[in-house]
Design goal:
Layout lengths: L8 E5 L6 H12 L2 E4 H11 L2 H12 L5 H12 L8 E4 L5 H13 L6 E6 L2 H9 L1 E4 L5 E3 L19 E2 L6 H15 L2 H7 L3 E5 L4 H16 L1
Parallel strand pairs: 1-3, 1-4, 2-3, 4-8
Antiparallel strand pairs: 5-6, 5-7
């Protein structure tokens, strides 16, 4: 990251299905920030068949966490790109204490720090329903849900008009349980880390998508001012 700018670094913390990706995309559009999803970066590595992708694939399909070594290498490479000077929304990172410590170090080296870590709270049962009903536009990646957010015109993406949609291989109820267990064991403790740093914000993500977006927008406006 650049050392001569005060780049906003926002973290969206939450279990699978909390709405991190949905909300990160909205914040990206509204505030001109860059969404940086380690899940997306890992899926791209899997699709490209890179050594990191091959190593990550089995773990992701089982709902576990990919090794810190692989995730940090991918994240560092992405954070070095010039576009992150606009400010970043970290979606799905950090997920372990080691990742949080590595992020703090990486930012400190660049004279930066975490602007806000926003915890999205959601009930475990609701999370399973959200993940199991999710699908995305194959062309632009816009997210939808069988129950909560269908395209206005069936079979046609609201955003780009695409007509092909896809579902993630790890969005089964069984794998979602494993992802949820990983969240509670390894990621939820980071809430205390960011509270101690004085940058923790919380949003009730059981509310509707628009309400959550409004609350997040208020937080981002406030902390970026
Ligand atoms: P990743 O891709 O990050 O998945 P995740 O954390 O499990 O999160 P999801 O993408 O499932 O959920 P989300 O919170 O983005 O919810 P969404 O907005 O889509 O990671 C996948 C895997 O990669 C991990 O399991 C791990 O193996 C690996 N990985 C990634 N990062 C890693 C890291 N840092 N370290 C190690 N391993 C890593 O919403 C879900 C659905 O609900 C959508 O259909 C949406 O429309 C709907 N919805 C959203 N908000 C609402 C709302 N308020 N009300 C009703 N419906 C809603």
């Amino acid at each position: 990251m650049d050392t001569d700018t005060t780049t906003a670094v926002l973290i969206l913390l939450g279990p699978p299905g909390a709405g991190k990706g949905t909300q990160a995309r909205r914040l990206e559009e509204r505030f001109g920030l860059i969404q940086l999803s380690t899940g997306d970066l890992l899926r791209a590595a899997v699709a490209a068949g890179t050594p990191a992708g091959l190593a990550a694939q089995t773990v992701m399909e089982a709902g576990g966490l990919v090794s810190d070594e692989i995730v940090l290498a991918i994240l560092r490479e992405r954070m070095a790109a010039p576009d992150v000077k606009a400010g970043v929304i970290l979606d799905g990172f950090p997920r372990t204490a080691a990742q949080a410590a590595a992020l703090d170090t990486l930012l400190a080296e660049a004279g930066q720090k975490v602007t806000a870590a926003i915890s999205l709270g959601v009930d475990d049962a609701a999370m399973i329903a959200r993940v199991a009903g999710r699908f995305t536009c194959a062309r632009c990646g816009e997210g939808y849900h069988d129950t909560f957010k269908q395209p206005a015109q069936a079979g046609c993406c609201d955003k780009c008009g695409g007509t092909e949609f896809k579902r993630r291989a790890d969005d089964t109820a069984e794998t979602a349980q494993a992802r949820l267990a990983a969240y509670h064991a390894q990621t939820a403790p980071l809430i205390a880390h960011y509270r101690a740093l004085g940058v923790l914000q919380t949003v009730d993500a059981m509310q509707g998508i628009d309400t959550v977006a409004q609350e997040l927008g208020s937080i981002v406006s406030r902390v970026s001012a």
